[in-house]
Amino acid sequence: MSVAWLNTGDNAWQLTAATVVGLQSVPGLVVLYAGIVKKKWAVNSAFMAFYAFAAVLIAWVLWAYNMGFGNQWFPFVGTPHPIISMQDELKQALIPASNTSAAFPMSTMVYFQFVFAAITLVIMAGAVLGRMSFRAWMIFVPLWLTFSYTVGAFSLWGGGFLSSLGVIDYSGGYVIHLSAGVAGFVAAAVIGPRLARDRENFQPNNVLLMLVGAGILWLGWNGFNGGDPYAASRDAGAAVLNTNIATAVSVIVWTIMDIFYFKKPSVIGAVQGMITGLVAITPAAGVVDGWGAIAIGISSGVIPWLSMNLLGKTALFRKVDDTLGVFHTHAVAGLLGGVMTGLLATKAGCAAFSLSTPGGAIEGNWHQVWLQLVGAAFIIVLNIVVTYILLKLISLVVPLRMSEEELLIGDDAVHGEEAYAFFGDGERRPVTGD
């Protein structure tokens, strides 16, 4: 039975956008992680991402969705409550605290928001690969979702105090990437580094598989940023185009930086530049124009590169073992994108996205830059405090790190499984001439 509020085109686009965002995690980041780590960690790294996707969904429908997008409980979080009854699933999508409605059912909204929550945990996993206990990760995922992610989501997207102030986060530069980058860095510091031999020799075991994951991640971002107007609208099209412009520019700029500094173009470097471009355009995608997207792409190819390759060589960053550089690719790029949103947001883009904000500094509204900094500060402090406390509490129940045997051997010791049908570094069985 049809209902007056349902727009089948909007519903079809939203389900498609949600599905391609889901593909960014499974299989996108699953295979990217499996390829970018050394062979003995391929299964564990992929499985951490795979598990997070499943665990987040169950917590999401039982209590977490309504904490992020339901009725206000506190100015920064909604009331925990299940959202899986047929009555809930069939009614019109509504975010009550922000009075935002959409022309598709709640089931579509819940699934769309789930894939964003899931990829946040999957991204964070990249900072602690190669030493975090899988059992600790199993406990950490639903707890961090509950006490950190939902707070950021409600505050910025669900009608909380940051959205009321006017902070712009179009599609998750703060809620997802700044959160994951900061939390991942804190987790890496608390859990401790990988074995010295792994830090010194961590060559990717399959660069081509890594590129497959990177390609899925890039194209999946069309749903990531194109789905946030909650409609198959003109702003969705602008967001998709701007996303790809910024990303392409960032890849090229990062590659040029590699050539000048390292004298060689690096595929892994290009993938890092791709990620920083995607992340930096995310808070701005639908509110800047193409020139703004180019400016963001240039900045995301330069500043995170400097952060990773210069700041990353300092004593603090050598001490904290962020396995895949999640702090640089997500926290730095997410903060950069949020600040540049304050600089480059246009009146037309804000109006198309139904924001009352009259654009950013480029339109004479320098106050928007201050608001973006306030929003970033809240997300940073939230994730430092919550992540540290949760990990310390979990450590009272299970060890945060794998055992020494598991760290030496890898997948075969942790899961009893191996990524490929040949043996080498870290395996129990000796290498033979077969």
TrEMBL record:
Keywords: Ammonia transport, Membrane, Transmembrane, Transmembrane helix, Transport. InterPro entries: Ammonium/urea_transptr, Ammonium_transpt, Ammonium_transpt_CS, NH4_transpt_AmtB-like_dom, RhesusRHD. It is found in: Cell membrane; Membrane. One of its GO terms (cellular component) is plasma membrane. Signal peptide: none annotated. It is a multi-pass membrane protein. Residues 12-420 form the Ammonium transporter AmtB-like domain. GO terms for molecular function: ammonium channel activity. It comes from the Bacteria. The chain crosses the membrane at residues 12-34, 46-65, 110-129, 136-162, 174-195, 207-224, 236-260, 267-285, 291-311, 332-357, 369-391. Belongs to the ammonia transporter channel (TC 1.A.11.2) family. This is Ammonium transporter. It comes from Acidithiobacillus ferrooxidans (Thiobacillus ferrooxidans).
